[in-house]
Amino acid sequence: MSSELPYDLWEPVIGLEIHVQLNTKSKIFSSAPNHFGDEPNTNISAVCTGQPGALPVLNKEAVRKAVQFGLSVGAEISRISTFDRKSYFYPDSPRNFQITQFENPLVRGGRVSADVDGARKTFAINRAHLEDDAGMLKHFTTFAGVDYNRAGAPLIEIVSEPCMHSAKEAVAYATAIRAIVLYLDASDGNMEEGSLRIDANISVRPKGEKGLRPRIEIKNMNSFTFMEMAIQSEISRQISLYINNPNKNPIDLIPPGTYRWDPDTHQTVLMRRKESADDYRYFPEPDLVPLVLSEETIDELRTSLPELPHDRYNRYLSDLNLTPYAAASLINEKILSDYFEEALKICKSPRSLCNWITVEFAGRLKMSGKTLIDIGIPPVHVAHLVQMIEENRITGRIAKAVADEMVASPGLDPIAIVKQNPDYQPVGDLSTIEPLVDQVLAENPQSVADFKAGRDKAFAFLVGAVMKLTRGKASPQIVNDLLRKKIEKK
Amino acid sequence: MKPLHHFSALELRDSFVRGEVKAVQIAEYFLKRIKQHNKELGAFLKTLEAKALLKAEELDHKRAHNKPLGKLAAIPLAIKDNMHIEGEITSCGSKFLKNYKAPFNATAVRLLEAEDALFVGKTNLDEFAMGSTNANSAFFPAHNPWDLKCVPGGSSGGTAAAIAARLSLIGTGSDTGGSIRQPAGFCGVVGFKPTYGRVSRYGLVAFGSSLDQIGPMTTTVADAALAMEVIGRPCSSDATSLDFPPESYSLPTEMKEIKIGVPWNFLENLKPEMRANFAASLDVMKSLGAKIIDVDLDVLKYSIAVYYIIATAEASTNLARFDGIRYGVRSKQAKTLEEIYEYSRKEGFGKEVKKRILLGTYVLSAGFQDAYYKKAQKVRTLILDAFEKAFSECDAVAMPVAPSGAFEHNSIHDPIEMYLQDIFTIPANLAGLPAASIPSGYDSRNMPLGLQIIGPQMCDVPVLQYAHAYEQATRHLRIPPAYEGLS
């Protein structure tokens, strides 16, 4: 019996629906501004508040961004696509129907690749289409209000195939999608603000079983960390249910429902059971004509595609010689990758720059939750720091101290920091180091002999001794060279 | 000089432009007529006295200073109350919107205003344009100026009555299944439904989105053509608006070489009186040089079924926005969200509206959509094809506007019989064709009858040309006796 299978012979099956809010200037069907964070009900028009007599007119910019997304994932762009009305009553819906693309979506198929635990995986996309966003309900003590600023914002809904088999894969897929829309400048991709929203559909089945078992949906996961937690927790819950209830019918164990992730309790909470499939009564939107795209338009959009994440990733590997891990850590956050490239203009040491950006500085800022960009350290400063190391003007140890100061006082150029602190002055000039080297050699004849006899450790000891005398400020390279030269002469 | 209400719109405009009459004089005259007669006619839901007088003063000022005057200068104009005049109530003949102030001008309204029309009032209609009698208005019914015991037709019954009684010289109606043409026929005036997309629907409260068109209702075809010159243009706020430039309507008086198609088989059940009137109209057209041929439009027998599926489906979603949340009347009884929806709609909508919303929801619902909505759309294509074939043989199709003249209030109780009133008008909406209704004589009760001329898509100009030629040769137009005089 399949339910007697141990935990690790169960396979999670995950599909993601990602809603990406496009960053067009105006909304998808109205000229009202498409902007987050303003006073409620200020970015509205007759169309997006469902006034009688108002009519939708399709935003061409939204179409362009959706087509570019489709091209970025190698999908098929429908030359003719249409819009449909999806009916349901809710106060955040100004017309009590959404305008979406049910029957003939703009984008079909497609795939994205991402690294999962060091292995490159490819995930399949089923379709992507345009639709309008709903407003936002706000609950107060004795009443509720609706803010229609968001109503009518352009969305691309991207539906994956149920092709992910772990929470990590789901995160990798979602990260890759997000990176693409950032690189296209199609969206802010901000999960906290809601410009990128992910619904996960999760089921499990014994490995090797072909069909799909009943699934549930989780919404409201506003970070990749939470998403991974939520999905993992749901996977465990479902597998446990099957294992502990070997004789029960899957549909009874996992009744269809929608859950939301509670970020405080770190639990999924049931929002509503789906007794029966909702009847949205989809039918063609009579107020919009079919969207017809010419070959010229699609070609023009294809040639104007910016560098995409996987192109940049490959470039980092081949041209800049970064390791896959280092490249991956940069490209997913476009703003960071752009930062890196700015710094690279000044300092041509990609590996070192990458390390300083993604490890050293990132580590220093981890507790604050902020990034280099947030706190205002410009790329040129990081470039200067790395330059000074590469040119042997400061040691690694001093660089770390300088970095601490840069984080404490963002905006201070490390060149200035070093200049103003005598302790950071590289002692690179031979006239200061040489006598110290002579002194060490004179004081440690046994070590010199040991080294000549073949014990490399003795050399390191000698280097250390010189460094001690220079209070760590001497350039290690210079000390090395000097010691070797002098020992040879002896 | 004849009384102002005996003028056509063109004549009155020219008279004003020549300085023979002042705009304020015109405004006061027609406002007085409205005041005198609206109670018995129920044509207007609202009179716009202040607005009309203000505009009239403006026009007199412009004229006095030789400033350019619009094509519709000083013409009294009635707007059906399902189209927005910014700042004025658009009630749609419904309790639901009795407090709703239009937040913007309908494009057609804006265009008319820009040509210096004098808006005198918002006219009565069947609630949300659903009906053929104007009896479905939530406020009060409208009456036929030819016989107050009879209906003026619907849903633009208020405009038809207003024009027929000469309370206004031009009016706008909206036509989804015949709501301009049928009341025009019942009231003995001219009504024109343009090609779908010729006139912008922006600012018209939607009923059947793929069927609705705004059009003029006037006393002469030339006046209708004048209105069409103004409102028949592309609109960037309506995605279904046709991207064709406005047209000018030269109106010859002959029909030489024109082939008129008549679907005799489809008309086989016409009452003898109607058939005689229709045949007489055909004779007139023959005398003008037209050739009458038979065309096959048998598939039109499915029109009513197709229409009541598609129109109600679209309407059920178009009226979903009336939920008591954002605007309109919210039920005072409602305490929960569900109750807001349920009670506001229960209290706000009339019976016919509820019926059509239920029907429209049903035909779209899971398990039924294929059999009803999708099937109806397929038959709609057959109707389009049938017309296309007919138009390959003729220039225009002629039919009566309605199966009879105007009937008495409350004389039709069977809903199907009521729906069948639109049998001749619905096809032009389904196929998006331009169609005109012109007075074609009177029945044995002396009630007006109408001839309908339907053309291919984008043949709005030819249709009005044929209508004009017919009108000039027949001159059936009359003012109803009760409204001829000055009092």
Task: Describe the protein in words.
- The complex is a heterodimer of chains A (490) and B (487).
- By secondary structure, chain A is an alpha+beta fold.
- Chain A contains 17 helices and 17 strands.
- In chain A, strands 1, 2, 6, 7, 8, 11, 12, 13, 14 and 15 form a 10-stranded mixed β-sheet that branches.
- In chain A, a hairpin with a 2-residue loop joins strand 7 and strand 8.
- The longest helix of chain A is centred in the middle third of the chain and has 21 residues.
- Chain A is elongated.
- The mean pLDDT of chain A is 91.
- Chain B is of the alpha/beta class.
- An 11-stranded mixed β-sheet of chain B has the order 1-3-2-4-6-5-10-11-9-7-8, with helices on both faces.
- Chain B starts with 8 loop residues before the first helix and ends in a 13-residue tail after the last helix.
- The mean pLDDT of chain B is 97.
- Classes of the chains: A alpha+beta (490), B alpha/beta (487).
Radius of gyration of chain A: 30 Å
Strand content of chain A: 15-25%
Q: Structural class, from secondary structure content of chain B?
A: alpha/beta
Number of strands of chain A: 17
Mean pLDDT of chain A: 91
Q: Enumerate the spans of chain B where pLDDT stays under 50 for 5 or more consecutive residues.
A: none
